[in-house]
Design goal:
It holds the Pfam family MTHFR. InterPro entries: FAD-linked_oxidoreductase-like (IPR029041), Mehydrof_redctse-like (IPR003171). Its cofactor is FAD. This protein is of the alpha/beta class. The chain has one domain: TIM Barrel, CATH 3.20.20.220. The chain is built from twelve helices and eight strands. The chain has an eight-stranded parallel barrel, surrounded by six helices. The longest helix is centred in the C-terminal third of the chain and has 15 residues. The mean pLDDT is 92.
Length: 268
């Protein structure tokens, strides 16, 4: 069991990757991957599993990965979350040796159905109950306004250990976000999130689903070429790695594991 901040620190001299998966991912495909991600990030969809018990899909997947001695970053949303369930969950995570959490509000979050009105409240509750056992990450929007950046600073101030960015497609966007964050006093690792894609359809589908921004130049180039997505992704990773101190990249896979691995493997 290792904290993500330690994993990143120990691999800062060479490129490393982590992969986000949903609980519906094929276990067989996970087990046969020919490269080992630094950790697996498991998404959490409270409206689907309703936080019914401790046998919900994201926890079952976390247990499986830990049984294989793989490192896990478990998403946890404020959505539909009650204090009693949180206490049970934190106890279970300690039992199965999961020490990394990614705290978010959740999809279509309704504060009336949660004991935690903000991510900051949830982070504080985790710290109050478990001290420094958990390494906590929060989301960062690279092109956010100053108000959102200040909110991110507050999350770090109350106990977040690292930031994981939404996907971006141009190196200068990450570089600018690093500079703005440093100026705002955010002094934790900021992990770049990358959507590894091959086709125009994959790119536009992700952009529409996640509401991320991508320049018209990239959209036009991707649509006009046969399949430049792999090249765009690889060049993005190489440019960020060469231009900053960060050598770790988090890959949004949408469970396309084989495809994502084929894109990043030549960089290792």
């Amino acid at each position: 069991m290792a904290k993500i901040t330690d994993l990143i620190e120990n691999s800062k001299e060479q490129l490393s990757f982590s992969i986000e998966v949903t609980p519906e991912v094929s276990i067989e495909e996970l087990d046969k991957l020919n490269i080992k991600p630094l950790f697996y990030s498991i998404t959490w969809h409270a409206k689907s599993h309703q936080n019914e018990n401790l046998e919900i899909p994201p926890l079952c997947l976390a247990k499986h990965l830990r049984s294989k001695k793989k490192e896990v970053l478990l998403h946890l949303s404020c959505d539909l979350l009650r204090k009693a369930y949180l206490s049970q969950l934190l106890s279970l995570l300690k039992e199965i040796e999961v020490c990394n959490l990614f705290v978010i509000l959740g999809e279509r979050y309704d504060p009336e159905s949660s004991d935690f009105k903000t991510s900051e409240e949830l982070i504080k509750a985790i710290r109050n109950e478990s001290g420094e056992y958990f390494c906590i990450g929060v989301a960062g929007l690279p092109d956010c306004n100053d108000e959102k950046l200040l909110q991110l600073k507050h999350k770090v101030d109350v106990g977040a250990n690292f930031v994981l960015t939404q996907a971006f497609f141009e190196p200068k966007i990450y570089g600018a976000f690093i500079q703005r964050s440093a100026s705002a006093g955010i002094n934790v690792p900021i992990i770049p999130g990358v959507f590894a894609f091959e086709t125009y359809k994959q790119l536009t589908g992700f952009v529409n689903m996640c509401k991320v921004k991508v320049s018209q130049d990239i959209l036009d180039y991707e649509e006009s070429e046969e399949s430049p997505g792999k090249e765009i992704t690889q060049n993005l990773i190489k440019s960020v790695a060469n231009g900053t101190k960060m050598k770790h990249f988090h890959l949004f896979s949408i469970n396309r594991l084989s495809s994502v691995i084929s894109i990043v493997q030549p960089l290792l």
